[in-house]
Amino acid sequence: MKTLCAVLFGLGIAAVSVPSARAQTDQSSGIQGYVSAGVGLLPDYIGASKYIIVPYVDGQANLGNYFLRFDGGDLQLNLLDDDNIHAGPLIGYRMGRGDVYYDAVSRMHHIRYSITDGGFVEYEHLAQDPRSGERVTLSVSEGNINYQSGLDVELRALLHRPLDFIDPGLIAAVEGDMGWGDGSFMQTYFGINQPNAVASGFPLFRARSGIEDAGVSLSLDQYLSRKWSVGVRFHYMRLLGDAADTPLTAIAGSPDQMFGGVVVGYVL
User: 28, 230, 210, 12: which is closest to 111 by C-alpha?
Assistant: First the structure.
């Protein structure tokens, strides 16, 4: 029987969260923020062409310029008291690969989920109307707990704007992202060693370090009141280099990876 992931923290692959926690809140005092939760469709594994239904959650809590943000599979803690520059540690979650739909892949050695640690640095600009802003984030994470899954570097650029010409409560966010993996990361998720080649029937494949993917995301959030909103998430990612050339993708899956979801949001 196929085992599904019980909880999906963010997406595991980069995706757009709703705009800054300050976008819909009074910045005067206290803890402010938002949480969004819902369901979505996610590839069965990185490179798969089959999709599974998973829970989805993102959120952020601000205390002045300090914040704790849960986004894209990472829990990020900003330690800088600055309006524009943010930096701090992160911990994250990477999905494994086990009893997947494609039989040959499921016969390979199962990859357990891993907990990552690392850090991030970003620049964020908010306009006088905080519903408008831009953010560029560079994050580095390494899978060290439960399963050694290598080093991953991700660059993300986000732009969000209100669509007042449609409805004053509608906010759109567009994001571009690119990921790089070291040799350990690439071999973990895309490589095929001798035992896995025998078990699956795929040829041997050595995945080297390099650019793993590039993607674009879109989110729309319609605020129904000051507190509540409904939204949609969509993310398209194209696997590149060895991530696209591996038989796990080229034979058993697809280099075109997508996520779609619906969420309900609440402003704290």
Answer: 12
